[in-house]
Design a protein that fits this description.
single chain, alpha+beta, Phosphatase 2c, domain 1, four-stranded antiparallel beta sheet, three-stranded antiparallel beta sheet
Length: 166
Amino acid sequence: MQDEILNYTRSIIINTLANDGSAEGGKDGMDCSLLIFDYKSMNLNWCAANNPVWIVRNAGQSNIELIELKPQKMPVGKHDRQNEPFIKQTIQLHQGDNIYTITDGFPDQFGGEKGKKFMSKNLKELLASNANLPMHEQKLLLKKTFKNWVGDFEQVDDVTIIGIKI
């Protein structure tokens, strides 16, 4: 179903932008992740356009694991791979898993002492090391970390992180 939604949305975006007045039609789109949880079977069905989905398993234990569900490297929109369909994937969840889906705003934010990007690696480490906390505490920690990172720099993009504890 997720793949059908993304494929259909892509066709709407392409058809809408075809009438933007330019010779080739607007080349634009969006990055996103679409998740459907089946709590009976404990499956996560997902489809992702450029945005990863991360699962932190065994939070607070010595055998903590971060699983990265890699996105397809294309947006939902006009692109050189626009004829390649999005593909739904499924992964088995475990009780206690934390699932995170993000936009690129947090990792791409410039800041810190050297004005560098925060980077996905650092965000994954931050999420994994704090996944044992209640979600509302994780939210506060992420907001504080982001604010401290940005400092006097300008925020460059939207920032969205959605976390779900199973």
